[in-house]
Description:
Blueprint: H1 15-36, H2 41-68, H3 74-96, H4 103-143
Helix pairs in contact: 1-2, 1-4, 2-3, 3-4
The protein binds fe (ii) ion.
Fe (ii) ion binds next to helix 3 and helix 4.
Amino acid sequence: MALLQWNEKFSVGVRSIDEQHKVLIETLNELHHAIMKSEPRSSTRSLAASLLAYTRNHYVAEEQMLANTDYPELKQHQALHRELLQMLQGYLASFERGGAANVDFLYVLRAWLTNHILNVDGGYRAWLAEHGLPSLVAAAHSHTAGHTSNVS
Ligand SMILES: [Fe+2]
């Protein structure tokens, strides 16, 4: 069974970010699955590395979007992103030092991510709906000329 499942309550009102959250959750689930199945260390390690890389890229995209829309709580939001990246880096570092695949960390991660998406990312949903969408749409168009907008 999946460790965490995306559901409509997680929606932040921006399709591209919702899609990124889904991939992030999927990657977390793959890592959990691999650890539960006692898959070789090389594959759990590489899944943990993918999770870190994906999370980092996702945060860059999310912070860019928030900066584009002058979100007033960007600084605090970034600090929370850094906190999670540090946790993931520490987890990966313990793999590299030869530590065992720690499933408890994934439960911590699940709680952290659930709270972050619902309560912290959820905090910019209303802001974007009220202040951000026009410039966000413009930004999305200039980055993906010829494609449909990634704003739902
Ligand atoms: Fe966030």
